[in-house]
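Why do we care about 3D structure at all? Because function follows from shape, and shape follows, mostly, from sequence. That is the central idea of this module. The next example makes it concrete: a single protein chain, its amino acid sequence, and then its structure expressed as tokens.
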Amino acid sequence: MSASTICILVTILLYLIMMVSIGAYFSRINKNTDDFYLGGRRLGPLVAAMSAEASDMSSWLLLGLPGLALATGLAEASWTAIGLAVGTYLNWLFVAKRLRVYTQKIDAVTIPDFFSKRFGDDKHILTMLSALIIVIFFVPYTASGFAACGKLFSTMFGMDYVQTMLISAAVIVLYCTLGGFLAASTTDFVQSVIMTVALVVVLGFAEGVTNGFGNVFANVKSFDGYLDIFKGCNVETGAVGSYGALPIASTLAWGLGYFGMPHILLRFMAIDDKKKIKLSRRVASVWVVISMGVAILIGVAGYSLMKNGIVPHYASNSEAESVVIDIAKVIASHGYIPAVVGGIILAGILASTMSTSDSQLLCAASAVSQNILSEVFHIKLSEKASFAVARIAVIIISGIAVIFALNPDSSVFRIVSFAWGGFGATFGPAVLLALFWKRSNKWGIFAGMLGGAAMIFIWKFIIRVQFADTWLNIYELLPAFIFNLVLAVIVSLATKAPSKEVTDTFEQVKVDEKA
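And the structure:
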């Protein structure tokens, strides 16, 4: 093993030790399961903002998005980023404050808990359905993070993919089971800083090795349409096609997903002071715009580096997701200090992965232990037993995600897009209607969530396959979101109006929000 490789591994090891240490620290602070799942609603504005966005971006930011830009040009990557940036801002602007006030008013600590208490669902029908949806879609989402870790080490060091994926998953599980929500949020804040450093360093190297961005863009201009956001490209085949209104609308639909992301919504619920949400919104929105812009530029620069033989030739979108890793390898080959820098970049990739996986695991674990066992099946547990069940749930869900992550050839971007669409289409309309439409009721929300979940699978695996060459081949989130929204409104209007107690609470929340 070379000296530079040892420097990289030591840097990564120190990073992992820091994450586990944070988990150990917060394990002494958690007093009950509410602390474990929601941190006692005491997140500061900066931690809330950065942990929300770090848990949102995942390995998609440092692997998926640069790889997509490299393999397909600016169009799909740029419109995806625009949709996500707009979605981030609107989610903080409209949802964050009211959700914080509402969940505190009705004492809800999880998203399924919020749905049931918001609509007076004493039978916990909404709890059961939403908890199952969380488990179904978070398993592949978490698996994509584990896969990214395995891909990182196997590409960088030639290590066995499965072994390194398992080790990475074990570290994530360890600090999650120790520290819970506060550990996940604090590590997410630290990881967002590391991710930012990694992005800037990679972009700076790519700019330097090509002697300026002028040369970067000169190299890619030879591929006609690569820099045109209204043309779709395929670097592998050299094909160029129009990227029209429908594909743009389909790609912008990524922004709709924000309204239904449980791990982001939990950050809103956990903010210590509703008056600080404006600061959180500004920090989060600025960071998202800058980080995604840099990630796309890395993909463009990566194409230039590929054409000049500095990084390998990528034959597919999945292979192109390794571009940041390959750039880190090139940097690390120039000596001890560059090796440490390369280690920081790789730690940034781990950070982007772990910051999402930890939040997803906690959401899924709370759905199983808090919502299904305690609220649906009414299993009474002591505080100590509740802690144990919560931690066991994290381990079991991680084990299932590991099985999904065993395939090293899976695309991080594609897995994330499916899970993102699933949550956006099932929970997005439900959250918006719950917060802003007094007449919505539990049967409308139930029908909408169930219909949205079904439509995700139908559109993804039937309609898009059967009509791949038609306008129906659009991102499944858009039609499923619309179907959920329309169905929820129709069923709500067709069934009994919510009780006076439910509507009075709704009106009081509007007053409290303005106070």
